[in-house]
Design brief:
Two copies of one chain form a homodimer. The first copy, chain A, is an alpha+beta fold. Chain A folds into two domains: 119 residues, 2-Layer Sandwich (Alpha-Beta Plaits); 139 residues, Alpha-Beta Plaits, CATH 3.30.70.660. Helix content of chain A is 21%, strand content 30%. Chain A is built from six helices and twelve strands. In chain A, helix 1 packs across helix 2 and helix 3 packs across helix 5. The N terminus of chain A is likely disordered. The interface between A and B is medium-sized, with 30 and 30 residues.
């Protein structure tokens, strides 16, 4: 906060921070107890990052993130923001010095400034998650930390038919952790779900790419666990419509393991950047 | 060995093993003190594998490999062979039971039988190594264990010009560990060196793919360290011809770190498989 003020559109006097710093982060989820700061002594991405920022700027720094990730979930494009104070002009070396302070397991891949008032959470237009599944008897090696291994080959066509039924606007209560759903609006809109086979680091896997504005707690992992039931032949694709209609977590498939999930990308409007 | 014998083409009576078992292995080199068995207590791929095979077949088993890899070097397609004894008929479950006995860090990705006399080492027609370099200020995360990180962007065109001068038949003494080269024939033929940019797991890297029949000790890593000198602008591409001509390890670039290197693939004649 600074002492300067400006009028917001509703006429209330607001503090006028010089600008907002926005960082993009990649991290290996298996090394952290999730993104959000927890009780003292548990290593989280937020605690590591805020401690580094506090040392760098010599003042307490708190960040806002685009999406909290659970323990074990990876990120390729997590985004965090924090207000700069008047006179703070981070040099081009900010990224490098943060990467020096934070390693290993988390990397700052981009640093830019946004207009005052920007929030990594509230200004996000879409979020993309990617989930990797290695299907077949041979366990993944190089992809082992970043994929769920299932022994049976999955039927991609069936999974795609099921995924098409999940796209669009639905009440996703069946795909939300019970405690998180209680008394909350569980209607969300999924822009797209794409399922493809790919080979990386020499290992074949299935990638499920889900894009939407906002997600419920463990929603993507529950969608993947449900699509897995279809892929393995335990249910017909149409079953996912019954799962949606049931509005009960018990009707859906398992929560797929955290390590297969990567918070991939967040889209913001072009006009927020300075 | 069995008691059965057969005549080889030169008329000498030879033992006639029932057949040879051939396994393809992937492993994470950072977990092992290289491929080759060493003194007791050092974990190597060979010791882990032979111990598992000895338990599986209830007799001592020794394997021959297509190429020894140094500590820290990964494999995607290492190949090993060992003689089967008469009456030994490994089931389709061999791969699965070995993977259960050996994890983590090494995976059997293929198991097949070859004609008697086959050797993973001596029957190899070509070997392919791949070396990954992440160039730029942002350290790799998901690729961190499988790539060499250098801070400067490398000039691929210059590296390709230099690589073209290394392809073909040359005396590669300058690219061999001094001790290994002493008094040995250091002429080798490189079939191809391809250098491409790629993106995997969301991270950009340079891949150097080298194919040849046989390689000297640490030859690929020294080639990469030498190409790096060109890519970073410390030398012109033509310099590598001077390096070859010098026939002295001191003239070449550094030995690039082990973790960037993966023993990728071995090619065998089609007619060896049963």
């Amino acid at each position: 906060m600074t002492n300067a003020t400006s009028s917001s559109s509703n006429g209330i006097q607001m503090p006028d921070p010089a600008s907002v710093m926005v960082l993009t982060l990649a991290y290996n989820g298996e090394l952290f107890h999730g993104f959000a700061r927890q009780r003292e002594g548990l290593l989280t991405v937020q605690s590591l990052l805020e401690d580094a920022l506090t040392r760098r700027f010599r003042r307490p720094v708190e960040v806002v993130c685009a999406g909290r990730t659970d323990a074990g979930v990876h990120a390729r494009g997590q985004v965090v923001s924090f207000e700069m104070q008047e006179g703070e002009k981070p040099s081009g070396l900010l990224m490098r010095s943060l990467n020096g302070l934070m390693k290993p397991g988390v990397v700052v891949t981009d640093a830019r400034r946004a207009r005052a008032g920007f929030s990594a959470r509230f200004d996000a237009q879409t979020r993309e998650y990617r989930y990797r599944v290695v299907d077949g008897p041979i366990p993944p090696l190089a992809l082992g930390a970043f994929a769920w291994h299932v022994r049976k080959k999955l039927d991609l066509d069936a999974m795609r038919q099921a995924a098409a039924l999940l796209a669009g606007q639905h009440d996703f209560e069946s795909f939300c952790l019970t405690d998180s759903a209680k008394g909350r609006n569980t209607v969300r809109t999924i822009d797209s779900i794409d399922i493809e086979r790919a080979v990386e680091l020499g290992e074949e896997y299935i990638e499920v790419r889900v894009v939407g504005k906002a997600f419920l707690h463990s929603m993507v992992r529950t969608m993947v666990g449900t699509l897995y039931q279809v892929g393995v032949g335990a249910h017909e694709p149409e079953w996912v419509s019954d799962v949606l209609a049931a509005r009960s977590r018990a009707s859906a498939g398992q929560t797929a393991p955290a390590k297969g999930l990567t918070f991939w990308h967040v889209e913001y409007p072009d006009d927020v950047w300075l």
